[in-house]
Amino acid sequence: MAVEVSTLRQEVTELLQGLIRIDTTNPPGNETAAAELLRDYLEESGVECELYAKIPERANLVARIPGRGEGPKLLFLSHTDVVLADASEWSADPFGGELRDGEVWGRGALDMKGQVAAEAVAIASLAREGFEPSGDLIFCATADEEVGAGFGASWLCEEHPEAVRCDYLINEGSGDRVELGGNAFYLCSVSEKKSAPFRLRVLGRSGHASMPGIADNALVKAAPLIQALGAYKPERELIPEVEALLETVTGQAPTSPEQVLELARGVSPLLAEMVDPLLSLTLSPTMATASQKRNVIPAVCDITVDSRLLPGTTIDEQEGIVRDVLGEGDYELTSLEAHGGTRSEIKTPLWGAVSAWVESVDPGARPAPICVAGFTDSHWFREAFGTVAYGFFPSRVLPIETAARLIHSADERVPVEDLELGVSFLRSAAQSLLSNS
Ligand SMILES: [Zn+2]
After folding, report:
1. How far is residue 398's CA from residue 416's CA, in Å, rounded to a whole number?
2. 281 near 318, Cβ under 8 Å?
3. Rounded CA separation 422/175 (Å)
């Protein structure tokens, strides 16, 4: 047993090192090289692989252990692209994949080539053992998650639904071990806020800047509107995920958003910080453009507002709220995009699999459901197939605060012990959901 475990540890470490050494910075991505590396690795263990590509350089890999057609389909989801790394900010080569003091260094170690490698090793090792799942076990490493320009998960769900249709899905998003009120919990993301940025266009009349009286300065008119957005205190709402989280951690189900904060502060500042953005939508003005010339009074001022909605809130509801905040005026609102904002049930067999694994590796610890502020590719699968999708990749060596600082940043790295923990979880989830019984 000990020999097998240490072998998987080495296997996942080496595979991650190989993946990091392939530069899949998106844009442009070039994920095909990563998909081919994974295919070569998986085929050695007898796992069927297929590459699906909208354009040749940006392939998605789908690997499968076919089931006997009696059980549900479980899919391990991940993406092979990474965000830009500025080597001058790093104390290691971001594409070196160096193993240093028990950690693998490089762009994507946390987001999310570490999980890519763990998912590949989990399915490969199960295949070598002759695992015969009741339903298909699928591993899907997609292109283009970081930009989302239509080469990855969205395209697969649309163009090749039979390749990726699944009942349960495990993806990135959470998995950190946190101590709250003296007890240990592993956060498991069951829903996501909706990213719904919009443009506020303030209208005026242009004129020469030396004669302000003849013009109507859109930039000046924008100022009180920006202030109103910044000062807005949104109405709070209690969503089921927050209710379940508080009940798991405190043993008491809150009945109002105010009680959530009170209970959370009683447990720890970390919990209060975690739940605060999950009680309402957010409106954050982040970008502004007006005149392109110093001596021309602008007729138009565009303000870009980042906005995250609670799952279930619609764009129409958002617009209504924003119009109330701004009042009457010379402006137009345009939704720029809307992604995410989906949820999965908490009480499911997949939750049971997460719980059983947590209990087995960390007695006394429990999973705690969470809605995350960002969004992942999970929503494509929830929308296309009604999949129960959770973001869960366990991490207990690297503290949650450190991980948050390293993702998309310099000196990204992952402890080998956490990689091994991830492999253990994924194998266990497949065995418990797709067991032969
Ligand atoms: Zn990611």
Report:
1. 10
2. yes
3. 9
Q: Each residue of 108-128: pLDDT tens digit?
A: 999 999 999 999 999 999 999
pLDDT above 90: percentage of residues in the chain: 94
Please confirm, yes or no, whether 145 is among the known catalytic residues: yes
pLDDT of 251-291, one tens digit each?
A: 999 999 999 999 999 999 989 998 999 999 999 999 999 99
Q: How far is the CA of 300 from the centre of ligand 1 (A)?
A: 36
Q: Could you tell me the distance, in angstroms and rounded to a whole number, from the CA of residue 81 to the centre of ligand 1?
A: 8
**Can 81 be counted among the known catalytic residues?**
yes
Catalytic residue among 145, 167, 418, 420: 145
Q: Which segments of the chain have a pLDDT < 50?
A: 1-2, 437
For residue 172, report the distance from its CA to the centre of ligand 1, in Å.
Answer: 6
φ, ψ of residue 120 to 5 degrees: the values are: -65, -45
Q: What is the whole-number distance in angstroms between the Cα of residue 376 and the centre of ligand 1?
A: 7
Backbone angles phi, psi at 317, to 5 degrees: -65, -40
Over residues 204-227, the pLDDT tens digits come to 999 999 999 999 999 999 999 999
Please provide residue 381's backbone torsions phi and psi, each rounded to the nearest 5 degrees: -75, -40
Alpha helices in 129-190 (DSSP H): 153-159, 161-164
Query: What are the distances in angstroms from CA 361 to CA 176, 186, 238, 364, 421?
Result: 14, 11, 32, 9, 9
The C-alpha atoms of residue 179 and residue 186 are separated, in whole angstroms, by 9
Model pTM? 0.91
- The CA 383 to ligand 1 mean position distance, Å, reads 19
